[in-house]
Amino acid sequence: MAIVFLPSGWSGATGGVTEVSIDAPRVHELLRTLTERFPALATLLDAVSIAVDGQIYHDAEFVALNRDSEIHLLPPVSGG
Amino acid sequence: MSTEAKTFTYIGTRPIRHDGADKVTGRANYGADINLPGMLHGAIVRSPHAHARIVSIDTAEAAKMEGVKAVITGDDLPETSAKLAMGEGALDLHDIGDNLIAHKKALYHGHAVAAVAATSLEIAREAAARVRVEYEVLPPVLTIDQAISPDATILHPEMVTRGRGVAPSGPTNVASRMELRRGEPDRGFAEADVVVEREFHTPMVHQGYIEPHACVARWGQDGRAVVWTTTQGPFVVRDGSAAILGIDAAMIKVIPTEIGGGFGGKITVYLEPLALVLSRKANRPVKMVMTRDEVFRATGPTSGTKVRVKIGAKSDGTLVAATASLWYEGGAYPGAPSGAGAMCCLACYRIPNFLIEANDVVVNKPKVAAYRAPGSPMAAFATESVIDEIARTLGMDPIELRLKNAVVEGDAAPYGPKYGPIGLQAVLEAARRHPHWQSPIASNRGRGFACGFWFNAGMNSSATVTLDSDGSAAVFTGNPDIGGTRAAQALMVAEELGVPVERVRPTVADTDAAGYTDVTGGSRVCYATGMAVIEAARDVREQLRARAAKIWNTDVSNVAWEAGRLVPLNGAGDKTPLTLVEVAAKASATGGPIVGRASLNVAAAGPAFSAHICDLEVDKETGRSTVVRYTAVQDVGRAVHPSFVEGQMQGGAAQGIGWALNEEYVFDAAGAMENAGFLDYRMPVASDLPMIDTVIVEVANPIHPYGVRGVGEVPIVPPLATVANAMRDATGVRFTELPLSPPRVLAGLMAAGD
Fold first, then answer.
1. Is B88 on the interface with A (CB under 8 A)?
2. For residue B372, which residues of chain A lie inside 8 Å, CB to CB?
């Protein structure tokens, strides 16, 4: 299953959980499962960028996941 | 795509830029060069208070002046709740709209409250002066400490702190907070032999682009509008203006002019929606050009910051623990790059235990905008100064200490993901080998060293490549050319098609002519739009194979592209290979013109690292310092046009040196900027600096076909700390507040008893 690493600052919304294993084919399904498990994350997930296996994506919704994928949720970054 | 091991014909060469002659002869058209028949001139009424409730606005006297054709206030631009997706984040168009023209409160000195269009600029300015605005003046919040004090005046009563993951609380001036943690920092510090902790301050500074914001808007009687503007993001101008005005983006065409610098400051909109509304109201084109005073007072600087960093190391130099607390001013609205600063501040080092917190704080100053590696230089100033102190305490060479702890492929970045192939070690080794680092230093000088990190962006890009019947080519993209990207794109087409680079015509297209393309920013154009250009050129190659197959009356599988020629295969060997020119000449007979296209959403480019060396001479009688030698080393992945890569490295270094030594917004007690001009806001000019030496390191980025990484932003990250470390070396005094202007240095030296 893919592992999702949650920002430590979100522990209040996840009951202290910082890593979650989720079986999902794509980021889309993974985020849906994540918010079902932690509803308080819903408002936080609208302002993150997503790294899948080290690659930071813009609009990662339909990026395919491997069984051992690592997903990190990051604050948005704007360039200059 | 994956990086291909190959030798290049055109990539890595230094042709004269295609737009060079126009720019050096004055033929190129910048924002203020656009003039249309019947055009009006706009002027803006700005708040004389840093914080005030708008009680009333009386435009009657202005409106009745002869020559005045339109007067608008916030009532003409309804507040919106729309957001505009851009990059990994989203632009809050409510805040951008309110920043364009205040609706209820003026939130900084210079905030627009009304605008006028008239038949001449003089009449427009006189009319603006006759707009009567009644204010209820409120106490200004001018520092982070004021903003977060328990009894602070609140800028936005509805604001709550986002990002905590707990029930929001407010009202507050802290717009967001984020945190990064690994391991157990307390236990790490307990294992450390040396712990250094300092608090650092940097002032608000401006991007300082030479060309002021300028645009012309023409709203047609059919409801369609055209905007000519100097911008890094024509599609942002189109979509942002449409959303703010509540109209269909399909009704707006944005034509980007040449751009005289942006550095992140020309991504958002400041004038365009106002000019559109004035044009709609007056039924004539309207031109708006900011003065330098307006650029300083009312367009995005970057954050003033307070950063506290604590790092612990073993006696052998191994870093074991760190904490960092970042407080960044967002200006009048949320949006400080504090999150990026948090992710960057320890990104050069392998540290097993850390806690980083970052806060975005609103104050009554101009709303900040992106500025070249937004958020990273201030964080690096703190971290790299502390690393320098640790090296001094341990008696270690500062490069050796960094090499011992530098991240390599497979290490986890502090923001989580593991690094792919990266070049920090190679950069540090190149710096250590450089004659500058190896040379002795005079007794009255100091030498500083620091390194820096930046992400680099990917995002959406489109490209079209056309091949004419004479074998010449053209390439169209939607990215305004700031750093030489026309030449870089022409080189890519030349490389893929074998067409001489001089016969490739690169064009910056408008929003109706180019496929959607994200901004010229984030160090992304040569990388991401370049990938689209390469794909489009390869699309042309595939079409050439099909055309050759048609000429030879064979299947396309019997045609190969080899070294710029179409070569017969599989029994078609009796045919003579055809050149690109020969096939292009038959385009009409083989199916019509040949046009290649590509559109991509590209993953981020992969990190860039740089390291700088600075020799500083300090006059201890006056506190004045002079940079006498400076070297910039950077991993660029692959230098497409080395001259422009070196130019980016030198430009970033020069801007960073200015930030370190002289630049700062100076506010009076009421929040008015006191130095809103280049005479008093002192940026370095060519005569202030030595030739900046550059060393290009190429560690290929595996997700780009040529190995390209972003280039433009990371060179501004190291200079703040590099210069400060040189100052420490020259004077023995650790300065923790920028700029290192003569009065501050002199005061520091006197306080130290020197």
1. yes
2. 80
B264 in reach of chain A (CB within 8 A): yes
- 10 Å CB burial of residue B28 (0-12, 13-18, 19+) is middle
Q: Which helix (H) or strand (E) holds B600?
A: strand B594-602
pLDDT band at B166 (very low <50, low <70, confident <90, very high): low
Helix (H) or strand (E) holding B85: strand B83-86
Which domains are assigned to chain A? Answer: 2-74 (3.10.20.30)
How many C-alpha atoms does B393 have within 13 Å on its Cβ side? 20
B553 token code pair:
């009356």
What domains does chain B contain, in order, with CATH numbers? 20-27+458-602 (3.30.365.10), 34-138+211-260+266-298 (3.90.1170.50), 301-456+604-751 (3.30.365.10)
Residues of B (244-263) whose Cβ lies below 8 Å from A: 263
pLDDT confidence tier of residue B3, bands split at 50, 70 and 90 = low
Return residues 279-338 of B near A (CB < 8 Å): 337
Contact between B310 and B345 under an 8 Å Cβ cutoff? The reply is no
Q: State whether ipTM is beyond 0.85.
A: yes
Distance from CA of B310 to the nearest CA of A (A): 19
Residue B350 distance to chain A (closest CA, Å): 16
Counting other chains too, the contacts that B2-8 makes at CB distance below 8 Å and 24 or more residues apart are B2/B702, B2/B703, B2/B705, B3/B700, B3/B701, B3/B702, B3/B703, B3/B704, B3/B705, B3/B706, B3/B707, B4/B705, B4/B706, B8/B495, B8/B706
- Which positions 695-754 of B are in contact with A (Cβ < 8 Å)? 703, 713
Contact B370 A78 (CB under 8 A): yes
Q: Do A78 and B163 touch (CB under 8 A)?
A: no
Structure tokens at B442: 């005079």
Q: Residue B721: helix, strand or coil by DSSP? A: helix
> Can you count the helices (H) and strands (E) in chain A?
2, 5
Beta-carbon separation of B87 and A12 below 8 A? no
Digit-coded pLDDT (tens) for A14-55: 888 989 999 999 999 999 999 999 998 888 887 788 999 999
* Residue range B241-265: mean pLDDT, rounded: 97
- What value does the CA radius of gyration of chain B take, rounded to a whole number of Å? 27
